[in-house]
Amino acid sequence: MDQIKVGFALCGSFCTFSNVLPQIQRLIDADYDVYPIMSEFAYSTDTRFGKAKDFIDKIENMCGKKVMSTITEVEPIGPKAMLDALVIAPCTGNTLGKLANGVTDSSVTMACKAHLRNARPVVIAISTNDGLGASARNVGQLLNARNIYFVPYGQDDYSKKPTSLIADFNLIEHTLEFALKNVQVQPLIK
């Protein structure tokens, strides 16, 4: 059987990268063929959580492939039917809003749009400080979208960030397995 080809797209929730990168390795260890994608912002921004180049080097070494970080690089995902599934982890509130409203102005949103044209699954691992605030309607809209599957999530820190939501990144592979069967893993809210 051929390896399942999975795009793994990272958005700019930099504080979660240390939890997300091991999930890329888990997919590789489970024999998925992982194609790395980063938003332009994630690809080019150094933060207190690390330097962009260090993250890029680590991801490229794990996957054995160059990180795709431009609209031009990811656009062929659709016409060439390059992927069996696409994971967006972390998926920020900004990206959620764009996906929910059909905005395609970044490498990650273009990868998603291109991939969805083939009616294949997109797995979203949310990480946003306003998931129970301004982004709540976008979460709801995407929960009802065809071929979109959410990694189970819960409140990040209810006392200091009462509207914040974060996925259980350890459930990415499990959610992906279900999404490939067109099933939303349950329970969704932890």
UniProtKB/TrEMBL annotation:
Gene3D superfamilies: Flavin prenyltransferase-like. GO terms for molecular function: catalytic activity. Residues 5-165 form the Flavoprotein domain. Pfam families: Flavoprotein (PF02441). This is Dipicolinate synthase subunit B. It comes from Hydrogenoanaerobacterium saccharovorans. The lineage of its organism: Bacteria, Bacillati, Bacillota, Clostridia, Eubacteriales.
